[in-house]
From TrEMBL:
Spans traversing the lipid bilayer: 439-463
Protein known as: Protein kinase domain-containing protein
Keyword Transmembrane: yes
Start and end residues of each stretch annotated as Disordered: 1-24
Basic and acidic residues bias: start-end ranges: 10-24
This protein's UniProt keywords: ATP-binding, Coiled coil, Cytoplasm, Cytoskeleton, Kinase, Membrane, Nucleotide-binding, Serine/threonine-protein kinase, Transferase, Transmembrane, Transmembrane helix
Provenance organism: Lacipirellula parvula
Record lineage: Bacteria, Pseudomonadati, Planctomycetota, Planctomycetia, Pirellulales
GO cellular component: centrosome; spindle pole
Main location: cytoplasm
Molecular function terms, GO-annotated: ATP binding; protein serine/threonine kinase activity
Length: 759
C-alpha cells in the first residue's frame, strides 16, 4: 500500500506493467462479472475467479479488493465478497480509512471520479478526497489524466488555485486530497442571479456547462456541514441590489483573481483548457479559486490529447480549441475561456447559444455573439472592451497572456486607462470591405491609379536657357524628339484602345478587354503627368482626362462584372462544387442580369457622368448581393481566391493585397516594369499595321483571335516573372490568398456562354 504523502515516489515501471495486465480482456470480464454479482446481493467466491487466470492472480486480487471497497462505500452493504473474510458492519466500512484518510460521506460524483468529504487522520483536517473507481483505472488514458490532474495541481502553489495536499493509492484505488473550499461556484452564482431576475436556469446540454464534480462537493458538503454556503449565497444576493457599477467592479475583481492564477499556471507550463464558471469557486471571503485541472495540458509531459479530440466545455472553448487541433492551442485559449466566463457573469447569459451541438460549434468558430452593452447598457464600456479583447476570434488579437488581462482588469478597478482598445476605424473598414468586396475593388483600383500617377516619373527635356545658338538648337532637337516619342506612344495607346473598343465590342466584359483598358488607363495617366506644363496641349489633355474618367467608370463596373462572370464558367462551377440547384439559379441570375443590363445601357446613353457612375455602382452592389445569396460562405471564400488567380499579374495592383504581401518598393517597381514589358510584347505580337486583323475578322475571317492569344501568352509569362520576385514567406501568403491553383484560370475570361449582361 502506498501512503499519500507529498514526497512519495511511485514506481512508474510497475504501474505500467499493472496497466498492461489490467487491459487483458479476460481480467475485465471477470471483474465485471464479480461486480454484477455483488450488485445482485450475491456473495461470489474469489477463489473461483482466481483459478481461471492464475497468471493474473496478483492484479486480479488487487482489482477485486478495489471492487469490494467501492461497493461497500457506495452501497453501504455489510456483506463481504470473499468467503474467507468475516462480515463487517456497514458503518465500519464507511469509516474504513483509505490510506491516511477517513471517509465521512460521499458528496459528489462525476463521469470519471467520486469525491468524498474526508478527514486526514495524521493532521485532523477536513479535506475533499477525489477517488478514481476501479472501472476507470482499466482505461489507461483516464487513469493517466487523473494522475496528471493531481500532479499538475500539486505543483501549483497560488492563493487562487485549490491546493492538492496528497496523492496516493490504496487497495488498487487511486485518490488525491485537496482543500475543501467553503462557498459556491460561479456557475451557481450566475444561476442564483438568473433566478432572482426570473430567468430560466436551464442549461444547454450541448454546452457541457453543468456544475462540475468538485463544485458539487463544495456546495453539498458545506450546505450540510456549516452555514457558510447559505451565508455566501445571501452575500451574493446583496450584490445585485447594490449599484450596478459596484456589481460590475466586484465581477471584475473576481475574474482578475482567476486571471492571475492562470497566469501563474501558464508560467509553469500548465494550460487549464477547461476554464468556465463551474470551475471557479467563490468562498465567503470573496476569494476566487481555480479548480479541476483534469483536462490540463502540461508542456513537460506527453500530451494525452490527439489531434481531432474535442476536450473541454464547448460553450467556453476558443475557436482553435473547438477545431480540435492541439497544435494551435496555447495559453490564449484560457484567456478566451476566461473572457467568455466574464461575459456570462456580467450579462447573465452565455456568450454562445445553440439549439444543438452543431449550431453551438458554428457560433464558437465564427465568433458570433451579442456585445455585452447591447444586452445591458449599464455595463461599463471599459469592461466590455476588456471582454471583447479577451474573446477575439483571432488568437493574435487577444491578450497575449492572462497576466495582461489581469493587469487591465486591475486598471479598470483602479480607475486607470486600460490598455485594450475598441476596434479602430481601420478595423471597421476591414470588416466592411469583407462584406462589400465589389466596392472595395473599385476603390482600390482608383487608389492605384492615383498612386501610379503620383509615382510616375516623367522626363521632359529641360528647357534650359542657353546663351549660345548651339545649346538652344540641341535643346530644341531634344524637345522635338521627345514630342515625336510622345506622339508615337500616344498613337500606340490610342490604337490599343481602339482594339478594346472596336475589335471586342461584342464582349464588353471580356477578360482581354478589361486588361487592355487597365494598360491604356495606366499610360494615359503617364501622359497627363508628362504634359501637364504644356499649355499648347491643354485642350488635348482635357479630352484625354475625360477619356480616363470614362475608362475609370467602366473599369469600376467591368472589374466587378468580370469577377461575377466567372460564376457562369463550368470550370469555376466545378471547382466550387455547385449543386444542380445552384447551377440552375446561376443561369436564372444571369438572365436577369442580361435584362437589367440592356435597360441600363439605354438609360446611360442620356445620363450625365454622376448619374452614370451612380447607376454603375448600384449594378455592382446588386450583383454582389446576388452572389452572396447564391454562394455559401465557403464557396464565396474560394470564389474570391479564384478571382485573384484570374487577374494574373494585375492582381498585384490591388493595394490591400500588396500591403498583405508587404511588397517592397523595388518589388512594386519591378512588377510595374513587367506590366510595361507585357504591353510592348503584346503590341509586337498583335496584328499590324493598324490592327487590320480587326477588319478581317469582321469580314468573316477565321476567328483565331490573335490579339487574345498574344495577350494570353504575355500574361502567362508576366505572371511567372512576378511570382519569381516574391520571397518564400510572400509566396506562402500568396498561396493562402489564392488557394489551390486552377490551371488556365487566367484564360477563363475568354468568351464562353452564357455571357453576363453587356453594358
Amino acid at each position: 500500500m502506498t501512503m499519500p504523502t507529498d514526497d512519495t515516489e511511485r514506481d512508474t515501471t510497475h504501474d505500467e506493467e499493472r496497466l498492461n495486465e489490467a487491459d487483458d480482456p479476460r481480467l475485465i470480464s471477470l471483474v465485471e462479472d464479480y461486480r454484477r454479482r455483488l450488485e445482485l446481493g450475491q456473495t461470489p467466491l474469489r477463489s473461483q475467479y482466481i483459478s481461471q487466470v492464475p497468471e493474473l492472480a496478483e492484479v486480479l486480487n488487487e482489482c477485486l479488493d478495489s471492487v469490494d471497497f467501492m461497493h461497500r462505500a457506495f452501497a453501504g452493504t455489510a456483506e463481504l465478497s470473499s468467503s474467507h473474510e468475516p462480515s463487517v458492519d456497514a458503518s465500519e466500512i464507511v469509516t474504513l480509512p483509505l490510506g491516511d484518510f477517513k471517509i465521512v460521506r460521499e458528496v459528489g460524483r462525476g463521469g470519471m471520479a467520486v469525491v468524498y468529504e474526508a478527514v486526514q487522520l495524521s493532521l485532523g483536517r477536513r479535506v475533499a478526497l477525489k477517488v478514481l473507481p476501479f472501472t476507470a483505472t482499466l482505461n489507461a488514458k483516464q487513469l493517466q489524466r487523473f494522475l496528471n490532474e493531481a500532479q499538475a495541481a500539486a505543483h501549483l502553489h497560488h492563493p487562487n488555485i485549490v491546493p492538492v495536499f496528497a496523492v496516493g493509492r490504496d487497495r488498487g484505488t487511486n485518490f488525491y486530497a485537496m482543500q475543501l473550499i467553503d462557498g459556491l461556484s460561479l456557475a451557481q452564482v450566475i444561476a442564483q442571479f438568473r433566478r432572482e431576475k426570473g430567468l430560466s436556469d436551464s442549461d444547454d446540454p450541448s454546452s457541457g456547462g453543468t456544475t462540475p464534480l468538485y463544485a458539487q462537493v463544495v456546495a453539498t458538503s458545506q450546505c450540510e456541514a456549516a452555514p457558510t454556503v447559505n451565508q455566501c449565497s445571501a452575500h451574493i444576493s446583496t450584490l445585485r441590489t447594490q449599484r450596478p457599477t459596484d456589481f460590475f467592479r466586484t465581477a471584475a475583481a473576481w475574474v482578475r483573481q482567476a486571471a492571475a492564477a492562470l497566469a501563474y499556471a501558464h508560467d509553469l507550463g500548465v494550460i487549464h483548457r477547461d476554464v468556465k464558471p463551474a470551475n471557479l469557486l467563490l468562498d465567503e471571503r470573496n476569494n476566487l479559486w481555480v479548480t479541476d485541472f483534469g483536462l490540463a495540458q502540461v508542456q513537460a509531459t506527453g500530451n494525452l490529447t490527439q489531434t481531432g479530440d474535442l476536450v473541454g466545455t464547448l460553450r467556453y472553448m476558443s475557436p482553435e480549441q473547438a477545431m480540435g487541433d492541439r497544435n494551435l492551442l496555447d495559453l490564449r485559449t484560457d484567456v478566451y475561456s476566461l473572457g467568455a466566463t466574464l461575459y456570462e457573469l456580467i450579462t447573465l447569459q452565455p456568450m454562445h447559444t445553440g439549439k444543438n451541438r452543431g449550431a453551438l460549434l458554428q457560433c464558437v468558430s465564427e465568433g458570433e455573439f451579442q456585445h455585452p452593452r447591447k444586452i445591458n447598457p449599464q455595463i461599463p464600456e471599459e469592461l466590455e472592451t476588456i471582454v471583447l479583447k479577451a474573446v477575439n476570434v483571432t488568437a493574435e488579437d487577444r491578450y497575449a497572456s492572462a497576466q495582461e488581462m489581469a493587469d487591465d482588469l486591475q486598471r479598470f478597478l483602479s480607475d486607470q486607462p486600460i490598455r485594450a482598445r475598441r476596434p479602430s476605424a481601420i478595423d471597421h473598414i476591414r470588416k466592411w470591405s469583407r462584406r462589400h468586396p465589389g466596392a472595395i475593388a473599385a476603390g482600390t483600383l482608383l487608389l492605384f491609379v492615383i498612386a501610379a500617377g503620383a509615382i510616375t516619373t516623367a522626363s521632359l527635356v529641360a528647357m534650359e536657357q542657353q546663351k549660345t545658338k548651339a545649346a538652344l538648337a540641341r535643346e530644341q532637337a531634344r524637345a522635338e524628339e521627345a514630342e515625336r516619342g510622345f506622339q508615337q506612344a500616344r498613337h500606340a495607346v490610342d490604337a490599343l484602345f481602339e482594339v478594346s473598343e472596336q475589335e471586342l465590342p461584342s464582349m464588353p466584359l471580356d477578360n482581354s478587354r478589361r486588361r487592355i483598358l487597365q494598360i491604356v488607363l495606366s499610360h494615359y495617366e503617364d501622359f497627363i503627368a508628362q504634359r501637364r506644363g504644356d499649355e499648347r496641349s491643354q485642350t488635348e489633355l482635357s479630352k484625354v482626362q475625360n477619356k480616363v474618367r470614362a475608362i475609370l467608370d467602366d473599369l469600376n463596373v467591368i472589374q466587378q462584372s468580370f469577377d461575377n462572370r466567372l460564376i457562369a464558367i463550368d470550370a469555376i462551377q466545378n471547382e466550387l462544387a455547385f449543386t444542380p440547384r445552384q447551377t440552375q439559379d446561376a443561369a436564372s441570375l444571369f438572365e436577369r442580369w442580361e435584362s437589367q443590363g440592356v435597360a441600363l445601357r439605354e438609360a446611360m446613353r442620356t445620363a450625365d457622368g454622376e448619374q452614370r457612375r451612380s447607376d454603375l455602382a448600384k449594378v455592382a452592389s446588386q450583383q454582389s448581393n446576388d452572389l452572396q445569396k447564391l454562394l455559401t460562405p465557403a464557396q464565396m471564400r474560394r470564389f474570391r481566391q479564384l478571382v485573384i488567380q484570374s487577374r494574373g499579374v494585375f492582381a498585384f495592383q490591388d493595394s490591400e493585397l500588396a500591403t498583405t504581401l508587404e511588397l517592397t518598393d523595388d518589388q512594386r517597381s519591378a512588377i510595374r516594369q513587367i506590366e510595361r514589358s507585357m504591353f510592348a510584347e503584346f503590341l509586337a505580337a498583335a496584328p499590324s499595321p493598324g490592327f487590320d486583323g480587326i477588319h478581317e475578322r469582321r469580314s468573316g475571317a477565321p476567328s483565331s483571335k490573335p490579339t487574345e492569344v498574344a495577350l494570353s501568352a504575355a500574361l502567362s509569362e508576366g505572371m511567372q516573372k512576378a511570382l519569381a520576385l516574391l520571397s518564400a514567406d510572400q509566396r506562402r501568403i500568396w498561396n493562402d490568398l489564392t488557394g489551390p491553383e486552377v490551371p488556365g484560370v487566367e484564360k477563363l475570361g475568354l468568351p464562353l456562354p452564357p455571357h453576363p449582361p453587356r453594358f
